[in-house]
């Protein structure tokens, strides 16, 4: 074991008369052989190394070096790391670098023992003492002065230990924390897995001892009544004092952020009112009191547009026998009700549209989630800036600080139990996880259910087993237990009648396993497709599950950010692979080009959802990168919630927000002189209808010059997305060269609010005979091409390759999730990169990356692997290979053969060009380039023998 020092994450709780902060230095002993209880370590004096709590032991340098035998928590689907010779250097002791997730500097899985002494004040004489640990990973067992108190195993809520009455003076606390798999919640559950936060060991957040009142508040449940502007407050009481008594429960509400304005009500508690509490002293159970509190007719509601909060204070004053006591509990309250109206979610009766992304517990610096409010304010502010209104916590529940930050901001959460019972785990099969699902769900609701930001809940993610039979009763039970939220069986599935909403995966642009047959890869681009058939097939709202999953190339410069526990050793491996292929200088180029395509694909995913009448919403996967499951770089933001340089919040928010103009376009590529009729639509889920709104359109050149403009609609734009708002009839200009125009729709309302969105359109000249130079040979015959080039001619070769020729599946979209975790699902590339100023593209304007005008040329194209050529060839148009393979690929490239010039194009630029204007225009541009006199000696010289293995037709 080693003890390198890393920064510890510390949060302190102030010490008061009734509360003692026990954060600080504890003594640590690791117990990898699990012998501590047998050897009675709890009875020994502290004998270990100093460690700070709150914090994890790994972030403070305790644990083992990473080896190929590290007992990871999480599945490795692609096991080539353990066998492939390419990974051999990364399996060497002292240099292990795993490619499937972020790698901690130290790893430990097992029991860890923490000890310290505490001083109990004299004023606590005769009072019961509670130890509360805000978040523990995972099972904790406590001894006080060598006597076992008990165990806790929640992954989601604080661990609490009733220590009984402690005499004033010094006492020894011994805490055993075990981060092995206590219950099989699934190896990939983000609550425990090395795919995300890491399997840390320790305690984070607050650590306190508290002297309890003889009669105390056990739990407070506020149930808002929006229509009547009041709240029913359920107060559960507990007592350690026997005897008949009397008392009062007082509930006070104060509006946060306004001038003092309090309302309160008191309810007497008498023996006849609550016999459990005061006749039996609650020694055999608990008592309950309901208090109705009127907040006033002008009490503001809480939602994403106006997050008005009230501070609710509950005070219990009781006298039982000769003992009087007072206990107080303060919590936040938002007047908020969530429901459904047909197939859409409502907040306070108003239809809303869920625009969510995942938070998978990815915090690379610490390897565990933050418990301070400021950290979560930053995350939520970023989501809001990108037009989102919800975070879905994938198979874990955040700490209280996250809810506090969301309450303040008017931001919504979908919370999940710490379960992904799949990949070997399962629910509904009488395994221990079944009971744990109910146990954790109840604990989550009791601890965090009062937060208005807590909008929705699932038991966990993508269950296996007898899920329908098990989760139907779970949903029904949770609905009865706590009606303040909407419930769904599981994120992903099953869609069952008990659900308040269905969180299902199929309404999205590309589904799992569709590959090149998906809409974005298999059908020409348009903006008319939506998911109306899915909406019509269910009576419940659909919030589509994990849409997107579009990858960008690794940001290799990002490695410098990993200054804490987690290291991006996976990025080190990918950088080495790129350098070995001679493309180290293209890393940033690949990132930016693939990122632009990623942004384009997310936009189509989001707009398709927004233009679907009656749709409930979506969860992205995701706004940020996911560092596990083979490294899934699916975010326009990195794992630190920071931009990568190709997508700003302002850009993203144009197509993702409360009000988004939408244009329904039958296609994106046109011929000059055509008439375009776009249908205008607005997805408006704002605070109120837009009165006196104007929906205007403008068609502009790239330089900003206005080609045409007009008004599509004037009037009221209602809340929703079911209405169409007129047509935009445009006769496109006759053109003699390729043009890119931009159609912009702008919504302005009487209050001056403006939302805008835009779509690039490509307009090409009408069909005309190709003007190929008679000096250029165009052929599909390889030997003819090689012979002609050898004789000094210029040759354009369209090689007859066919899909079996290479194992590279080239599509329009980038890689889905990643090829390692999906077992090599197509496509295998991340779009294309090219020099937009290359003369071969002079007649085919492009920006250096894939855009919609490339769909025709790339559809059915084949990438040629150029790694085996004797000299490096920089393709004119280069597909970007996945980072696991890092091959130099080409679909348009040029070499010298003998005295001649050979241009190889494996895109279809020769068939049906009369109905494929983009392919025709690219061919026209290429023919013009071929007619130029590029000297062969300025090109890489490659022999015919070297080219034949690459270009021989597949047999």
UniProtKB/TrEMBL annotation:
Residue ranges occupied by any Glycosyl hydrolases family 2 sugar binding domain in the UniProt entry? 23-179
The protein's matches in SUPFAM superfamilies, at most eight in alphabetical order, are given as: (Trans)glycosidases, Galactose-binding domain-like
Which InterPro entries does this one have? Galactose-bd-like_sf, GH, GH2_Domain-Containing, Glyco_hydro_2_N
Q: Name its species.
A: Desertihabitans brevis
Q: What single Pfam family name could you report for this chain, choosing any that match?
A: Glyco_hydro_2_N
GO annotation, biological process: carbohydrate metabolic process
Query: What's the family?
Result: Belongs to the glycosyl hydrolase 2 family.
Taxonomically, the superkingdom here is Bacteria
Protein's name in the database: Glycoside hydrolase
| The entry's keywords | Hydrolase
Keyword check for Transmembrane helix: no
**Molecular function as annotated in GO:** hydrolase activity, hydrolyzing O-glycosyl compounds
């Amino acid at each position: 074991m080693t003890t390198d020092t890393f920064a510890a994450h510390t949060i302190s709780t102030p010490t008061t008369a009734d509360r003692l902060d026990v954060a600080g230095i504890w003594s640590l002993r690791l117990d990898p052989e699990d012998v501590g209880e047998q050897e009675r370590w709890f009875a020994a004096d502290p004998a270990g190394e100093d460690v700070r709590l709150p914090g994890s032991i790994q972030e403070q340098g305790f644990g083992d070096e990473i080896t190929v035998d590290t007992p990871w928590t999480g599945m490795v689907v692609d096991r080539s790391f353990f066998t492939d010779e390419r990974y051999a250097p990364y399996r060497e002791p002292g240099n292990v670098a795993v490619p499937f997730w972020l790698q901690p500097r130290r790893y430990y899985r097992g029991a860890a023992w923490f000890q310290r002494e505490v001083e109990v004040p004299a004023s606590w004489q005769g009072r019961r003492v509670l130890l509360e640990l805000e978040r523990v990973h995972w099972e904790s067992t406590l001894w006080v002065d060598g006597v076992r108190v008990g165990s806790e195993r929640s992954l989601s809520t604080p661990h609490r230990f009733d220590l009984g009455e402690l005499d004033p003076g010094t006492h020894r606390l011994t805490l055993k924390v075990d981060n092995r798999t206590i219950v099989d919640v699934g190896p990939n559950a983000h609550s425990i897995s090395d795919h995300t936060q890491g399997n840390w060991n320790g305690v984070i957040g607050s650590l306190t001892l508290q002297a309890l009142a003889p009669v105390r508040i056990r739990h407070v449940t506020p149930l808002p009544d929006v229509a009547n502007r009041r709240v029913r407050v359920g107060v559960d009481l507990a007592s350690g004092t026997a005897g008949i008594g009397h008392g009062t429960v007082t509930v006070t509400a104060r509006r946060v952020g306004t001038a003092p304005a309090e309302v309160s009500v008191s309810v007497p508690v008498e023996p006849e009112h609550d016999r459990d509490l005061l006749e039996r002293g609650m020694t055999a159970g608990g008592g309950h009191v309901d208090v109705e509190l009127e907040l006033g007719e002008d009490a503001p509601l809480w939602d994403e547009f106006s997050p008005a909060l009230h501070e609710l204070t509950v005070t219990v004053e009781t006298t039982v026998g000769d003992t009087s006591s007072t206990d107080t509990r303060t919590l936040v309250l938002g007047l908020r009700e969530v429901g459904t109206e047909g197939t859409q979610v409502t907040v306070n009766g108003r239809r809303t549209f869920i625009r969510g992304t995942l938070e998978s517990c990815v915090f690379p610096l610490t390897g565990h989630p933050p418990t301070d409010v400021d950290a979560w304010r930053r995350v939520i502010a970023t989501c809001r800036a990108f037009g989102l209104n919800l975070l879905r916590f994938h198979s874990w529940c955040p700490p209280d600080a996250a809810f506090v930050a969301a309450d303040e901001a008017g931001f919504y959460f979908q919370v999940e139990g710490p379960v992904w019972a799949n990949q070997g785990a399962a629910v509904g099969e009488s395994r221990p996880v079944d009971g744990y699902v109910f146990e954790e769900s109840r604990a989550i609701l009791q601890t965090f259910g009062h937060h208005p930001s807590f909008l929705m809940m699932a038991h966990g993610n993508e269950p296996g087993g007898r899920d329908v039979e098990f989760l139907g009763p779970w949903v029904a039970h949770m609905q009865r237990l706590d009606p303040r939220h909407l419930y769904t069986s599981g994120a992903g599935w099953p869609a069952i009648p008990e659900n308040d909403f269905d969180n299902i995966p199929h309404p999205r642009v590309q589904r799992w396993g569709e590959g090149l047959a998906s809409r974005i890869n298999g059908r020409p681009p348009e903006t008319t497709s939506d998911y109306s058939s899915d909406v019509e097939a269910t009576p419940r709202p659909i919030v589509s599950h994990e849409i997107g999953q579009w990858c960008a190339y690794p940001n290799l410069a990002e490695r410098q950010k990993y200054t804490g526990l987690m290291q991006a050793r996976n990025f080190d491996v990918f950088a080495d692979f790129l350098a070995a292929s001679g493309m180290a200088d293209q890393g940033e180029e690949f990132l930016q080009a693939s990122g632009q395509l990623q942004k384009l694909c997310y936009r189509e995913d989001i707009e398709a959802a927004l233009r679907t009448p009656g749709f409930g919403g979506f969860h992205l996967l995701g706004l940020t990168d996911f560092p596990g499951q083979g490294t899934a770089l699916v975010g326009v933001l990195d794992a630190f919630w920071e931009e990568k340089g190709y997508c700003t919040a302002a850009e993203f928010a144009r197509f993702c927000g409360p009000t988004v103009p939408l244009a329904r376009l039958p296609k994106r590529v046109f011929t000059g002189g055509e008439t375009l009729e776009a249908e205008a639509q607005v997805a408006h889920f704002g605070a109120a209808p837009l009165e006196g709104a104007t929906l205007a359109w403008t068609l502009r050149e790239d330089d900003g010059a206005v080609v045409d403009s007009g008004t599509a609609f004037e009037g009221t734009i209602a809340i929703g997305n079911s209405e169409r708002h007129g047509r935009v009839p445009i006769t496109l200009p006759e053109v003699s060269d390729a043009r890119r125009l931009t159609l912009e729709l702008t919504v302005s309302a009487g209050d001056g609010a403006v939302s805008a969105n835009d779509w690039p359109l490509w307009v090409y000249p009408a069909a005309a005979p190709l003007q190929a130079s008679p000096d250029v040979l165009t052929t599909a015959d390889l030997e003819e091409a090689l012979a002609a080039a050898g004789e000094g001619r210029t040759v354009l070769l369209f090689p007859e390759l066919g899909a079996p020729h290479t194992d590279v599946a080239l599509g329009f979209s980038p890689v889905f999730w990643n090829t390692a975790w999906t077992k090599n699902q197509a496509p295998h590339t991340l779009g294309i990169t090219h020099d937009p100023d290359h003369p071969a593209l002079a007649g085919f304007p492009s920006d250096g990356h894939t855009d919609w005008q490339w769909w025709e040329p790339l559809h059915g194209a084949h990438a040629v692997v150029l790694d085996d050529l004797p000299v490096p060839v920089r393709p004119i148009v280069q597909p970007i290979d996945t980072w696991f393979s890092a091959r130099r690929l080409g679909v348009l490239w040029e070499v010298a053969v003998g005295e001649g010039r050979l241009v190889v194009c494996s895109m279809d630029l020769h068939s049906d060009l009369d109905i494929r204007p983009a392919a025709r225009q690219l061919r026209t541009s290429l023919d013009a380039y071929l007619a130029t006199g590029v000297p062969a000696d300025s090109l890489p010289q490659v022999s015919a023998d070297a080219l034949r293995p690459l270009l021989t037709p597949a047999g």
